[in-house]
Amino acid sequence: MANGHTTALERLLRPLSKTFTLELARALVGIQADAETQDRYDQLAAKRTEGQLTPDEQTELESIVRANTLLGVLKAEAHAFLAQAKSS
Questions:
Q1: Percent of residues, the chain, with pLDDT higher than 70
Q2: Measured on CA atoms in the order 54, 56, 61, 65, is the torsion positive or negative?
Q3: pLDDT above 90 (res 52)
Q4: What single string gives the DSSP state of each residue in 7-33?
Q5: Cα(31)–Cα(71) distance, rounded to whole angstroms?
Q6: DSSP letter at 7?
Q7: What is residue 6's predicted lDDT score, i.e. its pLDDT?
Q8: From CA 75, how far away is CA 10, in angstroms rounded?
Q9: Is residue 81 a contact partner of residue 17, using CB atoms and an 8 Å limit?
Q10: Which of 9, 54, 57, 61 is deepest in the core (most CB within 10 A)?
């Protein structure tokens, strides 16, 4: 969305945003990774940079990235919902 191109994930999740409430949108905007998850991501990313990831760690890192991408799309939709609600 930031680059002006809509991804398949964004198109798939957009109908969900039509069911947002103010409370849900605000909650989504406020979600952040817990410290343990962020620390693990940082460790895995550093190991990847060094070329030291095992196949299991690569899978784990990809899982974290996919979850973050999904959350990012939901948060963007929530921001848009809140902006529209504010202007209404």
A1: 94
A2: positive
A3: yes
A4: PHHHHHHHHHHTT--HHHHHHHHH---
A5: 8
A6: P
A7: 76
A8: 11
A9: yes
A10: 61
The span from the CA of 71 to the CA of 77, in Å, is 10
Rg (CA), the chain: 16
Identity of the amino acid at 61: L
Return the structure tokens found at 34: 């817990």
- The amino acid that residue 84 corresponds to is Q
Q: In angstroms, rounded to a whole number, what is the distance separating the alpha carbons of residues 68 and 33?
A: 9
pTM: 0.82
Identity of the amino acid at 31: I
| Torsion, CA 62, CA 30, CA 79, CA 42, rounded to 10 | -30
Q: What is the pLDDT of residues 4-47, one digit of tens each?
A: 567 898 899 889 988 999 999 999 999 999 999 999 999 999 99
Burial of 6 (0-12, 13-18, 19+ CB in 10 A): exposed
